[in-house]
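$ run holo --ligand "adenosine-5'-diphosphate" --emit tokens
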Amino acid sequence: MSISKSVVQQLLDTCTGWRPQMYFKSSLTALSHAMEDLVLNDSDTPLVIASFQRERYYRQEAHRYKRIANKSNQVYVLAAPETDFSSSSSDYETIAFEPDDALAQEWHLVIIGKHYASCLICRERNVPFPDSKYGAAMDTNRRFEGIWTFDRAVTIEVAKIMLDRIAVYRPELTTKTNQAHDLYLASEPETNKTLVPIESPLTNPDPFVQRLVTYLQAGQYKLLKANKSLAAKQQKERLLNSVTDAVRRSLNTKQILQVAVQKLGEGLGVCRCIIYRCHENDTVATVDREFISPGIKSVKGHKWQLANNPLFQEAIASTETISIDNTLEDERLNQLAWEQGTGEFFQNLIHNYSISSWLLVPIFYYGKLLGVMELHHCEAEPIAWKPDDIALVDAIATQVGVALIQAEAYADLEDLNEQLEALDRTRSNLVAIVGHELRTPLSTIQVCLESLASEPDMAPELSQIMLDTALSDAERMRNLVQDFLTLSRLEGGGVEWNLETLSITECIDLAVSNVKARNQGQSMPEIKNLTTPEDLPLVQIDGEWLVEVLAKLLDNACKFTQADGEIAIAVKTNGGKTLEVTVSDTGRGIENSSLETVFDRFYQEEGALRRSAGGTGLGLAICRQVVKNWGGKIWAESPGKDQGSIFHFTVPIKATKNKSQPSASKAAKYTTSRQKSNKKQHN
Ligand code: ADP
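-- output --
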């Protein structure tokens, strides 16, 4: 059975002097509770009719109606059924109406006793049913229009309408509703069809008002709580946004990590917030970045044990945050850690750094661990980490992960760019060198040979000069090819290293005599050997390559120093496991910006086309490869243009303290690659 006419409308049609008022749902709840309490706290046996829009609203109040039913047998509850509500007669009468009935949009409560009479009769405006996606959050804002009054006449009018409806929905109750008519509605004033609001008939309205105020206070309190939690949520959202914004703006990993710990530590008001970078299989990590509040001990730079660390293991396995409210009671820290061998590590941390509550947040990016963030509470009284705070820290960890990947990708890109630039430089240098160092001697050889061939009567002195020139240019070409091959063997790992125990001074002597022999007949700067052999330990090295490096550095020094200049070789102990060899000259020097690039393949400061000194641009690249191979370092220094250059490189010392000198023949057998290839050629 469904009636489409609104009860509110029916009343307003009857009582024309009444204007409906607007009520929020929360006010209606307070009013109806106060009215129900009035019934429960009075000795009267009243008529009670309550109509709920839906069964679910009635369900919240069902227990009250059970109690109300103890007061009177004239209690009627109406609702649109949803699950198990139906028309029945038990403690009180329940009347189910169809969901499309006008009552489904309305909310009524009528109470009529001897001492009081009141009604609350409303219909919902714009009816946005709480089935909507906004649900309960919007529920209290729902609005109703209607009348709430203590006016007996109006209340009786409403009761009549409702009883008539009940008789229609449940005709079997007609006898009971007629009784209600006789008992409660008989005093209806005959003439009062146009009713005017009058004062409450209650002789003492105080208890009712007090109840109403209590309900309103409770509502206000709920509102306050909701506002507080909303403000806290907003603050956290702001914190998340500000961290996200700050970390995403930077492409510097250190800065990202510092901003994250700082903002998170300050924002959540924790005692300590730290981050360390690590991978799944790392056994140890160093605390990189830290935020500490005043008075809290720093752990920055400390080593964090990751192997056999139950917290770390659990975080990796679950990819989730591990929260420990009380470190003294946590099983992982107090039992598992001892079983796994990290008990002492945790005990030290907990006691020395006063960690009473602990949050460990792994930073993942697409399943790859990038690091760990930890929050420590360091006061005597531990705290329980709130789910909201954990969710916030998780969200920040995700943002930090994204920012780190972004920064690393950028750094990789920069590296790649640098490599590309270096490759490009090498390519242009290669073109220039090949152009100059191959074409020039080739043309000379061709001219010499053509002259010799076309002029058989050439004077013997002249033909000798032609032959010498052709031979020396062929040698120049061969040098280039030789250096090419040497470098590619070194880079490709095709060199067999013969480690021997040697005296470095003998290798130096040999390299110097090689260079002198090569420059025989030409004016060259003086070479001073400043080494004092008796103070130097023996070295463990492939002597052939050591002589090669020394010879190349000396060759360069000769090339770029005027004949009246000076070249010096010195060796010093480094205090460590290496000797440091220095080849310095008083020549043209090297610009500060080129001190690194001189070691690149094919680098020549003035470009091959303008070179008078000759050379392949591969000498220093070969030296770097050789020194790198024995685990040493090579570098250049120069006070500036025309102020000379200093080349340093390190050589490993023999591990034992045996000071015996090697036989002279050992070093003397070494030849530079050029000499070797010369030998081959002569053979
Ligand atoms: P090259 O065969 O051209 O000498 P290197 O690789 O040996 O090739 O040297 C590369 C470049 O480094 C040289 O062309 C020169 O510009 C610079 N250089 C090397 N040694 C010295 C030095 N002692 N003084 C000044 N410049 C030097």
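-- notes --
Residues 414-474 form one domain.
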